[in-house]
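Bug: token stream looks shifted between consecutive jobs. Job 1:
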Amino acid sequence: MPIVQELDAAEAADPTPRQTLLAIAASCLGWSLDLFDLFILLYVAPVLGALFFPSQFPTLSLAAVYASFAVTLLMRPVGSAVFGSYADRHGRKGAMVVAVIGVGISTAAFGLLPTLQQAGPISPILFLALRLVQGVFVGGVVASTHTIGTESVSAKWRGTMSGLIGGGGAAVGALLASLVFLATSSIFPGDSFAVWGWRCMFFSGILSSILGLVVFRSLEESPLWRRAQNKKRQSTDRRTPLAMLFSADHRGVLLTNLLITTGGGAGYYLTSGYLPSFVKVVNKLPGTQTSLILMVASIAAFVASLLIGWLSDQIGRKPTFLLIGVLNLILIPFCYLSMAVSSDVMTIGAYAAALAFLGNAGYAPVLIFLNERFPTDLRATGTGLSWNIGFAIGGILPTFVSLLSPTPSDIPSSLAIFAGSVFVLFLIGAVAVPETRNRMQ
């Protein structure tokens, strides 16, 4: 008996500084590698549209690619349910390793697909099927990656940590994708990019699996999860995390969360998610200039994520949501409409950076807010499903932007209308939800 108590005490001990830093690095890396794999698709969307979903109308081809992106988003809740439940019952580390490696391998597999011209109708079917598989693993990344980071740091830094992982990781992932796009565009210029360039971009996804496996080997479980496991041994409640989440105690929390996650997710995909296509299709800039602008936008997104995450630690999650909601409601439509009529590369870059800043600011505190809404033994499942259902809904909107834009010149006004609408929804959620700062146990 004393031996068991001694082991329990060791499991509940606070992490060492080295363990904390490793948890932070692993969470940021896992998130950035996940977004790196997804941004590859966004950066080559116009090329993929012509190769897999050709149409005499460029915006319809683009809409088809974004629809395939939405297919992945729709599978993310499935991944959150599977990997989140595993992470809550057996630990964050194992779920994170499998999810990140799975995303990298499924991304690399896109580079092996035959085009419509090479294989006929089976080509887009294979493309969509692989997107479904990738979506499951992506959902698992959200459920496991963020929780181990925020559970391993001091309460006063959890909002900053949320921004660093969620937005900062996304910015790093987008920056890495921009660098790969810049390299492949230089190696395969012009028409050759449509032959081998896009394939090499997808092949780079295997690097994320290798890097993730190396970094995660030394990772340890979070102290909050270990303490929760100690308490669970003494509990008579044997319900699964999914059964607990959809019970009367937590079902209302999940539904209210979706107001915030849908608004934040839509804001992100209508800004950072749509920028690669906007710069190419509306501003008609060449690949090199597009890559440089997107790199600047990635840096702006990183700054926004840290700044707004930190702000939520100072003034609270709810006031931060209200402030960012009002700013985005006004400024995102303005930036897109102004960017569309700009011809100067520096001006276009400034608007792109502003849009990336605003879009990432909208969801920087969302992950820690979700973490704080659920107890530890339900956190990975609750956070993952709240995030992925909302972002699945929000991620569909770029498809409708393209579908409702008969020509590229109609895209800016469509983006302005959709962005304004989703941040009205976001503000409704910000008013409805409670303050959660310092309530994660």
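Job 2, same session, no restart:
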Amino acid sequence: MTFGIVPTRPETGYGYIRKGLASGPALEVAAFVEKPDAAKAAHFVASGDYLWNSGMFLLLARGYLEELLRLDAPMHEACERAWTAAAHDLDFVRLDKAAFEGCRADSIDYAVMEKTNRAAVVPLDAGWSDVGSFASLQDALPGDAAGNVTRGDVLTEDTKDSLLFSTERLVAAVGLEGHVVIETKDAVMVAPRARVQDVKRLVERMRQAGRSEPGLHREVFRPWGSYDSIDAGPRFQVKRLTIKPGAKLSLQRHRHRAEHWVVVKGTARITRNQEIFTLGENESTYIPVGAVHRIENPGTEPLQIIEVQSGGYLGEDDIERLEDNYGRRGRTD
């Protein structure tokens, strides 16, 4: 069973469900329809024969697996192998990577719902939005007198009906109407509200160009906290490490890089080869290439350290873990 949203407007950002014959409060699914262009979307809504595909399903897990096995046995087999060979650490279940990569990338809609003869849809008219685009996010949030929705450090002049979002820097907009401006640590996006769905074209172009942005964020989270890549250049990289209270990094060493650490907030317990010592705010230390090292936060507040890496290779795979509290020995995550 899936739930089809009674459309309130032509929408190119959603897929559609064409209604079939009724059986009580539910309808047969005549067809699933891909996201349409504007003209088709207007036709769908005017006809009254279509619902938005919400992607919400009600089913027994057992029933879904039975249908998956019947309709796509290779996918079922790959998922079963990945689960059977999964490893457990702390409260994480890590699927077997090789088995899971052998599973074809596909959605529940394509793999099962579009093929099964057991699908039905219930019309839902409940003021629903999946908040799946910046345009729908703007609709869901309160705006100012000019129709602008702003978050963070934003300054506007002669701007209306726009979404402006800042996480790090001042966003200043002049003369915009119906635009979306999103500033994050990773990138800045500017687009007319009606074109925000086209951002996927830019993402594909970045992937084709081999850029890192589609796969890596500037701030990366780890079990012990996070690191933020502040600056980088030939043979150097600067990060801000935030270590949670009571947490510790793995005991590790690097073959290609040295590191300088400066404590800017909190107290750090440092392991460097055979030494174990404490650093307070405004104190620093040096980790030579090949030295066994670790950072711990013995305090009750987050610890912040500025790390300056230097060397001929600064990739995250230059980490040899000797001991780890999070079951990651030998891995680079």
